[in-house]
């Protein structure tokens, strides 16, 4: 969390991951907060005293998110796999029958049929046929749909862009996230030749539902 004025001569930077339980009490009851390890500030002591309740709440929420990040990620992965397991076997009844007969079909996370939790919440993939290129609503509708499928794997994105939208996929990428120190930022690019002039669209995936670690940043 950071606060600064327009000239950046005053700032307050907090690192919740370095804050201890004692530090949390210092936020509420001590005016000497700048001496704590998890704080870096310059000329904002008055501002801090005025807003210590908000800062305390913010740090506590971020500590909770950090604590629950791994369990939430594990649960999200298993829940997503379960949804695809049921779908791969047509329905829950068929899944049980296939399990008894040792014919259960396991989903492939890299296949074009594997869906994220977001994909199951909203299974639309087709563009609104009532909105034609040149319509003022076209760009917004295309951007919204591209943002939705950005949550899916590369095979799924390729199928939708090329086979359903009849556009050219230029690439799907995993970008380095400096905060998390791993490649957790996904985006894809595609070429839309249906508009004049034609255009290249870049769509980034937002925060995944069960990614509490990303929410902290």
Automatic annotation (TrEMBL):
GO terms for molecular function: triacylglycerol lipase activity. InterPro entries: OBL-like (IPR044819). GO terms for biological process: lipid metabolic process. This is Uncharacterized protein. It comes from Nyssa sinensis.
């Amino acid at each position: 969390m950071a606060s600064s004025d327009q000239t950046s001569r005053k700032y307050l930077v907090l690192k919740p991951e370095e804050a201890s339980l004692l530090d949390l009490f210092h936020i509420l009851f001590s005016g000497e907060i700048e001496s704590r390890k998890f704080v870096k500030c310059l000329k904002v002591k008055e501002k801090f005293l005025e807003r210590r309740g908000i800062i305390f709440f913010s740090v506590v929420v971020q500590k909770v998110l950090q604590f629950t990040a791994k369990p939430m990620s594990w649960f999200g992965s298993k829940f997503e796999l379960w949804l695809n397991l049921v779908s791969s076997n047509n329905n829950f009844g068929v899944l049980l029958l296939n399990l008894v007969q040792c014919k259960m079909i396991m989903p492939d996370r890299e296949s074009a049929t594997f869906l994220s939790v977001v994909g199951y919440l909203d299974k639309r993939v087709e563009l609104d046929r009532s909105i034609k290129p040149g319509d003022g609503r076209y760009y917004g509708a295309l951007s919204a749909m591209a943002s939705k499928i950005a949550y899916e794997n590369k095979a799924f994105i390729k199928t939708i862009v090329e086979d359903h939208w009849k556009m050219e996929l230029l690439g799907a990428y995993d970008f380095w996230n400096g905060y998390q120190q791993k490649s957790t930022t996904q985006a894809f690019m595609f070429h839309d030749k249906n508009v004049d002039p034609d255009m290249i669209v870049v769509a980034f995936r937002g925060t995944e539902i069960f990614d509490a670690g990303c929410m902290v940043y």
